[in-house]
Each structure stands twice: as structure tokens, then as C-alpha cells.
Amino acid sequence: MNHIQHILINATLAFGLVLACPGPGKANLANYCLNGKVMPFQNTIEASFRDTVPVLEQETFDRPFGAAEYTPHASNPFAEKEAAPSKIIPTFKIEVDTSFSQVQKIPKEYSGFKIEIKASPEPLPSGHDIFFQHGNLVVDHLENGVYSYLVGNFRSADEANAFLLDFLAKRYPEAKVVEYGEGGRLY
Question: What confidence tens digit (pLDDT) does each residue in 109-134 have?
């Protein structure tokens, strides 16, 4: 036999001896049998009185091992504390003056191209979404009484059409390019 086989045999014998023989202050096979585990020789081995695992009849789980009896806390441990201030920020309704809008009229000397995004038979209310979604919004009151709301300032119709197709066509399907010459609408 080689050296490793000798070590394995000795370790196996030592381990079996520890389990079979009760030792002072050590857990062992005898106490394992008394704790309800099924073993063929359960009734033939007696437990050592100094074993570390208590016998079932003596077990008590109401107190920690080696400690005094458990005393529960007061029924409401927070009764003596002052109430903490609320961490919720209250909401306040703020009135917003929407009577003033950034809408301007077409200057009399203006020549160029703009994009009409909305046409209305009456002026739009000051709280309408269009006033909050676009900067430099311009309004033109046409001869037929329609209010035309326009954005942009383009030098050519091609620039205006490219901007319309890239940014505004999906949102405003009825938008169109409009040309102005010296403040008057040409088409």
C-alpha cells in the first residue's frame, strides 16, 4: 500500500470511531439517534449527559441558550417619540397669465417664405398648445377673415419645403409654404 491509501484508511477509522463512541462535550451518533433520526441501533446507545445537543423533552425555544428569560418590548415602541414632520411637499396651484402671447404680426416690409401650420376662422385662445410649442410664431389676418399662424423665415421655397417635410409634415398634415413680398401674401 502506498502512503495515500494509509492516510485514507486511518481517517476513515478515526471518523467512524468519533461517531460511534460518545465523547465528553462532543456531538455524537448516540445523540443523533435520540433526536428522532431513524437508525437501526437507535435504542441500544445511551446519550452522554454532557452532550451538547439537549434531549427533546428539555428543549425550550422561548429563550436564548444561557440567557435570561425573554422580555418583550413595549407594545408601541414609538409612543414616546414625537411625530416627525411630513416629508411630502404640499402642492400649490399657480395661476398663469396666458393673456400675453409671443405672437407677432407680419412686418410691412417682410419678403420671404414662411410655413402656415394652422389656419382658423377665429383667433386661437391664448392657452392653445400652438403658442407653447413654437417660438417666433407669426399671425396674419387674411382678407377672407381667416387667421393664419406661421413659423420660420426662409429665403427660398426649397428651404421652406425641406423644413416642412423634415419637421412639420407629420404633426401638421395641412401645413403649407407661403410666400410674402413687402408684407403682402403672394400665395
Answer: 999 999 999 999 999 988 888 888 88
> Cα–Cα distance between 122 and 104 in angstroms, integer?
16
The grid coordinates of residue 176 equal 403649407
39 contact partners, CB below 8 Å, separation of at least 6 = 29, 32, 33
Q: Which amino acid is at 107?
A: P
Q: Are residues 112 and 177 in the same domain?
A: yes
Radius of gyration of the chain (CA): 46
Where in the sequence is the domain holding 47, given as residue range(s)?
3-58
Angle made by CA atoms 26, 29, 33, in degrees to the nearest 5: 120
Partners of 68 in beta bridges: none
Q: Are residues 53 and 113 in the same domain?
A: no
Q: How many domains does the chain have?
A: 2
Instruction: Note whether 180 and 111 are within 8 A (CB).
Output: yes
Which helix (H) or strand (E) is 37 found in, with range? none
Segment 82-112, tens digit of pLDDT: 777 778 888 888 776 655 556 889 888 999 9
pTM: 0.47
